[in-house]
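Researcher: Here's the sequence for the chain we discussed earlier.
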Amino acid sequence: MSMANKFVYTSLGITSLLLGVFITWTMLSSPTVINKDIIDAHNSTCGIVKKAGKEEYVNGTGVLLNTGYIITAAHVVDHNLNRKLDKKERKIKIRLYERYGIPYEYECDVVYFNRGLDFALLKPLEAISSKTRFSIDRPNIGDRLITIGHPKGGPLNITEGFESVSDKTLHGKASLSAYFGNSGGGIFNKNQEVVGILTNIATDRRTSWVVIFEQTKRGFKIMRAPVHYYQTIPHMTMYTRSTSIYNHLEEKNIGFTVIKPEEPFDYGLWLIYLKMTLQIAGVIACAWFFRRQILG
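Model: Thanks. This is the structure I predict for it:
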């Protein structure tokens, strides 16, 4: 290889290396800026990854709780609500996005699955930290709520609304916009606590009438028949309440903890601080005493 070719290849190699360093530095020096009022809720929201042949795509949303479990909707894990999960289907992937927008995938086990309330619990095979808490405080009418999810499998999307119904039903209703892919996403209160998981878009039952012509021996018979259908209500979603999920797990008594117990106050650390403070104060007092005795 001639000296000219060596120079060209060396220059290209150095240029590629510098360009890679520049791109990496640009990405790491400009992280996504997230409002502090929703940062914990945002960072705990993950995508549920499904596989179709060789391709993988985000099928729904889940929330990583501070107990280590991920909660999502049952129909996100398996849309067919009339059968049991087999062993292979109890393995699933989730995708978390950290603040630089880089996705990280984790393998999870489906440890609990309930089609009635439409929720599922996933357990990551490796520990993932989260600050998001599960709340059993029922929202009041007019309370501000947000939901975060992957609409149509795309990037995280945040919408805001208000609690619309305050009753003792298992499901709640909120004025939140949602699309396919938001299912399983958390409904968060002002403290960034999960008060429910989004299950479906609210619908209203409507009735139309159709005219039926029936041929008889005497001619034609005209009849009217009702046709019932459901129409989606814009900007209104249904969600499974956290209280419903918590009460169900408590009744089953199967050992899955969605609420992390409060850690007892550690007096030992404060005693160490007090001891150190007294020791420092003693040293200062001794130094001051000897200075007065020697220097007057």
